[in-house]
Amino acid sequence: MFPTDPVSNLAALIRCPSVTPAEGGALAALEAMLAPVGFKVDRVVAKEPGTPDIENLYARTGGEGPHLMFAGHTDVVPVGDEAAWSRPPFSAAIAEGEMYGRGAVDMKGGIACFVAAVARHVEKHGAPKGSISFLITGDEEGPAINGTVKLLEWAAARGERWDACLVGEPTNPDCIGDMIKIGRRGSLSGRITVHGVQGHAAYPHLADNPVRSILQLAQALMDPPFDDGTENFQPSNLEVTTIDVGNTAVNVIPAKASAAFNIRFNDRWTAESLMAEIVARLDRAAADSALRPGRAPARYEIVWNERPSHVFLTRNNALIESLSGAVEAVTGRQPQLSTTGGTSDARFIKDYCPVVEFGLVGKTMHMVDERVALADLETLTGIYETFIARWFGHAAA
């Protein structure tokens, strides 16, 4: 029996407690849905020392011709205080036209709808005129080390090539059809540490307070703004996320102070050019004697977090128009083409093929009582089904 009902598909996935990094039975449930539709399924375990082993899934149906990938994740964030939920978080309970459960919108719902859409397409038209694949990770909500990156490498090493990808993350702010993500800002994080000289607060001339310098360095990171934005992206924005001294004594000048930061940046920058700008700002601030009169430049070091996320913008008209047209055909809305929000696994997929993102309404993702309207599941399935037909039509033209 083909899995054409997104509600049943989602219920089966929610009932699997796949809190990252646990597989929780979710990939097994997905494999059971895909096999009857003609998909060959591979379960791929990725490993790296110091990180949990992650089970992922790659499934493909079809042979030669255009190859469309659907990408997503079955792992979910922890439920938090389970007693605060009005329904058990892995029960897939339905109340007043909504299904409750962790992962309902982020993003088991998107997977459930795409499975239903493919099943309906095959039921009506037979096998696709090309190939469809599912690239599903169990490590999107975790460190993203043993997930999409390694699954893409594994598939590419086997000769897999893709012409386009749709990621089913919840992209819509308010209603299905509001927004398609056609790119993402980059993300760069680091930590600066200022080294001072510990001493007695009553004898500051014998010490060198690093707190004075860390304040100047933090201000230099946030002001002035990095840019005013670009045609397709918001202004780059840096936030200092913590300042740490670790000093419990009020009469002791500490020996060092540190601050962590994250910047979401647009296409005016590369990660490398942004690093150079940040270092230049820090060097100027370190030499500023406003809070440290008569002192030599502050001594600081910076450590960059591994693997910055690079900014990207998808310009593939066939992919964007196929999805936009499907949204408008089903909902009557013209979706906004956006690059807002955080990062997703699309940042890895863009190195292999053009990628866009479209899924459910994200209002309740990661919240207590995460839930999705059953009507939205049907609407999204209709959009996905229409998109599949339109994309293969474009690709074959």
Task: Give an overview in words.
The protein is an alpha+beta fold and 397 residues long. The chain has 2 domains: 265 residues, Zn peptidases (Aminopeptidase); 119 residues, Alpha-Beta Plaits (2-Layer Sandwich), CATH 3.30.70. It is 30% helix and 23% strand. The chain is built from 9 helices and 19 strands. The strands form 6 sheets. The chain has a 6-stranded mixed sheet with strand order 1-2-6-3-7-18, with helices on both faces. The longest helix has 23 residues. The protein starts with 5 loop residues before the first helix and ends with a helix. 48% of the residues are buried. The mean pLDDT is 96. This is Succinyl-diaminopimelate desuccinylase. One of its GO terms (molecular function) is zinc ion binding.
